């Protein structure tokens, strides 16, 4: 167990101000007038333990946050782009690894309306060790454009894809990059503009784009496998993680397409709405069996609709309508996300500054929200963790229709996970955990390498996912009347502790049995 970066001198209970087992706000990271940026892009990374963010404005920046209540990890993990003159789009994409944090930033060049675009890779471990946030590599896309850049990466962070277009020349470019080195794997240039939407499969074997009024689909080598004219512009584009299903907007319709044997896509069925409704955002599960969409009413601009669909039965399982007064502020579905397993869907909107929620997390089986948040202003970006219990949202400090140059990122938690990291773990700091099992008298915290298979034992409920053969460390802590137990241990101050992989699971004693927690955490030590 030498690889676990714990100091064994003292172990103690800890008390936390925020109840980790109740739904609510966990952290926020806000801009100021003197340090102005808008929360343009956000993504979870490292299994949901990290939140990778991009803000654009006079003080454009990249910031790596913790999903735990402590918020910002450290000042050295905030990279200010504004001294280098960043303008236009700043975007991020995060993988399951903390050393695979991709960013896209645009910088002015030959004139105010043309920008060069740089894709970069950041390594959280190297940055924490060095105290600097310099990228490991940077790739210039080599095309001056007057439009935004869109960015995605595969789940493992082995590859990234970036797309952009220029309306003046009517050209678009897509670059596929090696995640480790930034080497250009493939490049496609074609005559079409502007770039409206990008959607990718989980392994980047397929990349779909809407450019102008045309739908394109490319394989991992940049070979075009599908192209069709849509007849109208749309920002609603989604691709399932396994690339078997593709959904694209078409005026007051959403078309669901299936991948054919020749890798092209054919129409499967169409959802038709009222003539005045336009689909603005759509997202799918990994197998395409669940999808979610946001609709906006062009005749009643304060009216929107969220919905969740079951693909195999072609039925809508949940929907919600929102409306506002005529002539008031405009509402708009800004973002939609679906968990890989299709169990949950999240929606974010501008709102109209009333009591209706701008942030909604829906459970498909329950056909009901498990979290609804009335934000004080408009949502601009959204990320949903793979487990469907954490949401990161970028929020402008005023409504989207109102002038404002500042905003903030917030992390919300449903409180459902029975074991949680409750503070950002940093070398030289503390590992702080909380476990919950009603009726328990004592809780064991098991620390060690993650096991590749589940381990079951007599008179125990659930399975152990910490490798017993590696002789894990076990610490007992009393549970309170609510069944909560807390644990705190100092982490090594050596930089060698940064990035050391380990996992923690809880086992609660209750009713004469040992109950293993359903949640297993893999803290990211920086």
Q: Could you outline the blueprint of secondary structure elements for this entry?
A:
Layout: E1 24-30, E2 38-45, E3 50-56, E4 61-66, E5 78-80, E6 90-94, E7 101-108, E8 115-122, H1 124-130, E9 137-140, E10 149-153, E11 159-166, E12 171-178, E13 184-191, E14 195-200, E15 206-211, E16 214-219, E17 224-229, E18 237-239, E19 245-250, E20 253-259, E21 265-272, E22 277-284, E23 290-297, E24 304-310, E25 315-322, E26 333-338, E27 344-349, E28 359-363, E29 368-373, E30 379-384, E31 390-396, E32 407-413, E33 419-421, E34 430-436, E35 442-448, E36 450-455, E37 460-461, E38 464-466, E39 473-478, E40 484-490, E41 503-510, E42 513-521
Parallel strand pairs: 37-42
Antiparallel strand pairs: 1-32, 2-3, 3-4, 4-5, 6-7, 7-8, 8-9, 10-11, 11-12, 12-13, 14-15, 15-16, 16-17, 18-19, 19-20, 20-21, 22-23, 23-24, 24-25, 26-27, 27-28, 28-29, 30-31, 31-32, 33-34, 34-40, 35-39, 35-41, 36-38, 41-42
How does this structure look, described?
It is a single chain. The protein has 526 residues and is mostly beta strands. The protein has three domains: 36-193, YVTN repeat-like/Quinoprotein amine dehydrogenase (Methylamine Dehydrogenase, Chain H, 7 Propeller); 273-414, 7 Propeller (Methylamine Dehydrogenase, Chain H), CATH 2.130.10.10; 419-521, Immunoglobulin-like, CATH 2.60.40. Helices cover 1% and strands 50% of the residues. The protein contains one helix and 42 strands. A five-stranded mixed beta sheet has the order 37-42-41-35-39, with no helix packed on it. It has a four-stranded antiparallel beta sheet with strand order 1-32-31-30, with no helix packed on it. The model is unreliable at 8-12 and 71-76 (pLDDT under 50).
